[in-house]
Design goal:
The protein is of the alpha+beta class. It has 16 helices and ten strands.
C-alpha cells in the first residue's frame, strides 16, 4: 500500500519558505531518465573537462533515495541573488579597464547561506507537519538539481543549460530538501520551454562554448576556465575572455527572460569590497594577504590565489594599452609562480603589441 501524502498544502510550505528568502518551492517528481542520458552523452563527449566529480556517483544522481536513504520526496527551491541590475552589470562588462566578477560571487558564499535557510525550513516542516528524516543540498552533492527544479515546476532548462523562469529569469540559486515525508508533486503540467527560436545566449558566448542548444562544452566556457581549471588557460581563448576574472554571465545578461530577473534584498548577497565594478589595477595591487582577508567567506576562494592572479593577468593583457598597466605587470612578474608568470608574459606581449600599434598610427 502506497504511503498516504501529508495533508498540508504546498502553499503553506511555500509561504514559510518565502519568509526565509526563497522565491519559490515545488515538489519534484523523480523521473530522471532522460536527464541521465543527457549527462552520459555530456561525459562521453568529454565536455566536463577536469571536473571529474561529474563522472562519479552516477547511481546517486539517478536515485535520490540512493543518495539519502528513505527519501520519498524532494523539495526544490530557488533564491534570487542579483543585487544589481542587468544594465549595470553590462556597463561593467563593457569597460575594459574594470574587472567583471560573475554576479553570483559578489557577496557571501551562497552554499553557506542556502544550506542554513534550507535547514531552517526543514526544521519548521518537522514542527508544522511531522518529524521527518531529511538532508539539504545546495550544489554540494551528486544531485541533478536543474532537472529536479524543472520537475518541481520552477521553470524550464534553457538553451544555455540554465534553469529559466518566466517571471524571474535565471539569476537565482537552487537548493533541495530530500525528505522521507510524502509530499506529492503539484498536480500541474510541466512548465513549457519558452526559448522559442531565440539564440541570443548561443551567439553571445565569447569563446563559442555552446556546441548547440542545450549543449555546453565546459572546456571553452569562461566560468570553467577562470574557476574550475587549475592549469594554464589555452592561449587561443585568452583574448576572448576580455575582462572577466571570475566566471561569466554573458548568456544570462542577454537572455530576454532576464528582463524580469528578481532582485535580491539579502545583505549576504550584496557586493563586497566594490567588486561589482572594480578597476583591474586596484585588484592587481592586492597582496596575497589582502586576497585572503577580502575573500573570506566568498565563492571567490575557489579559484585560489594563483588562479586569481592568472585571471587578472589575462584581463590586464586584454585592457587598453597603458604604461601603468605594463609597469604593474612587470612588477607582478617578480616572485610569481610558474603559472602566473606564464600569463603575465603573455599579457605583457599583448600590451607591447598594442603600444606599438598605437605608436605606428
Amino acid at each position: 500500500m502506497a504511503p498516504t501524502p501529508h495533508p498540508m498544502a504546498l502553499d503553506d510550505i511555500r509561504r514559510h519558505a518565502r519568509t526565509l528568502g526563497f522565491a519559490d518551492v515545488g515538489v519534484a517528481h523523480l523521473d530522471l531518465g532522460e536527464d541521465l542520458a543527457h549527462l552520459d552523452a555530456y561525459l562521453e563527449a568529454g565536455f566536463h573537462g577536469e571536473m571529474d566529480y561529474l563522472a562519479r556517483n552516477i547511481a546517486l544522481r539517478a536515485s535520490p533515495a540512493a543518495l539519502q536513504p528513505g527519501t520519498l520526496s524532494v523539495l526544490s527551491l530557488r533564491m534570487p541573488y542579483l543585487s544589481d541590475t542587468v544594465e549595470r552589470a553590462m556597463d561593467t562588462l563593457r569597460d575594459p579597464e574594470r574587472a567583471y566578477v560573475s554576479r553570483y560571487a559578489l557577496g557571501r558564499d551562497y552554499h553557506k547561506r542556502m544550506r542554513k535557510q534550507l535547514a531552517a525550513l526543514a526544521e519548521w516542516m518537522a514542527e508544522a507537519l511531522a518529524p521527518h528524516g531529511y538532508r539539504v543540498f545546495c550544489d554540494s552533492a551528486p544531485s541533478l538539481e536543474k532537472a529536479l527544479a524543472r520537475n518541481a515546476g520552477l521553470g524550464w532548462i534553457g538553451k544555455n543549460t540554465l534553469l529559466l523562469n518566466r517571471d524571474a529569469g535565471s539569476f537565482f540559486f537552487l537548493g533541495e530538501i530530500y525528505t522521507d515525508l510524502v509530499l506529492p508533486p503539484a498536480d500541474t503540467d510541466p512548465v513549457p520551454a519558452e526559448c522559442g527560436r531565440c539564440q541570443a545566449c548561443l551567439k553571445i558566448c565569447p569563446t563559442n562554448a555552446f556546441v548547440g542548444p542545450y549543449r555546453l562544452d565546459a572546456r571553452r566556457c569562461i566560468s570553467y576556465l577562470t574557476i574550475e581549471q587549475r592549469g594554464s588557460i589555452p592561449e587561443p581563448l585568452r583574448r576572448a575572455i576580455g575582462n572577466r576574472i571570475f566566471g561569466c554571465d554573458d548568456c544570462q545578461l542577454v537572455c530576454p527572460w532576464n528582463r524580469y530577473a528578481q532582485r535580491s534584498q539579502a545583505p549576504d548577497f550584496a557586493p563586497r569590497h566594490g567588486l561589482d565594478r572594480p578597476a583591474l589595477l586596484d585588484l592587481w595591487a592586492w597582496t596575497q594577504a589582502d586576497w585572503h582577508a577580502r575573500t573570506e567567506g566568498m565563492a571567490l576562494r575557489r579559484a585560489g590565489w594563483s588562479g586569481w592572479r592568472r585571471n587578472l593577468a589575462v584581463a590586464l593583457g586584454n585592457a587598453p594599452f597603458s604604461e601603468q598597466v605594463l609597469s604593474a605587470l612587470e612588477q607582478g612578474r617578480e616572485g610569481a609562480d610558474a603559472l602566473v608568470a606564464e600569463h603575465i608574459d603573455w599579457a605583457m606581449d599583448e600590451q607591447r603589441q598594442k603600444g606599438q600599434s598605437r605608436a605606428a598610427t
